[in-house]
Amino acid sequence: MARKRKQPTTWLHRNSRYLMAGVSAAGLLLAIGCMAKGSSALAGSAYVQLGGLSLPLLGAISYLLMGVFAIGPVVTKNKSLEGPTWLGLFIGSTAMTIFSGYLLYIMFGVLQEPCVPCLLSAVLALGLWVLSLMGNRWESFGQLLLPGISVALVATIATTGLYAYAQNPDSFTAGNPPPIVETNSGASEISLAKHLTAIGAKKYGAWWCPHCHAQQTLFGKQAFEHLTYVECDEEGVNPQPNACRTAGVQSYPTWEVNGEVLAGVQSLQTLAAVSGYTGPQEFVNQTSGH
Question: What is the CATH architecture assignment of 11-167?
């Protein structure tokens, strides 16, 4: 009986774990940099909120785990970890690549605002996936078929759920939603809302508050989706009363912009000035403001 021919060991096979550890380290540093810099329009949007974890933190955890899987068997010199960690690297990088594809869709198809660190992270995730395929001498790529399909299904279902929740959170969450915003947004309102989210500004309010609704009407329904809104009433949707108490909110609405607290309905011009917004200011909806 003929012996099964042994696959040759290439340079990539010998160094793949070091390469993956390096890519993971680069991704981890990128995520830490994003956490230090602050929120972006993508990271602050409802489309990427996963279990309360911020997008950069989720990325940091993912890259850290991938780095541990990559370099763990080398450091410990434990051969028994080779198989399980390679499978973990393949599963993890597959999930990360699919999630990166989802982020690209949200960036360009929904928010229409690119995030350079997110683009770099997508490239790194794809690189990890390619290395997980080519860097190990798999007996057969067929052995990856079942775990690959399984993780792809789970990741696709998870991202679809995130998207559906962001589109209509009230259908998923108990509580009293605020009144529907019926005014439309202009390009200036949307640009200002994205800017406010990017610098970490927050609007505190309550679902029953007419002044909060008036503020939301100024932005319009399209722009309001880009704002970071904190519900202070326990009977509202996604209530965060502790966050409101910590921020010292005493009336609704209250804005927290660049460390400054603004109580009451604010004109869009005021919010633009306080936040350092320098974009277009041809606002469709006007008010006397405060």
Answer: Up-down Bundle (1.20)
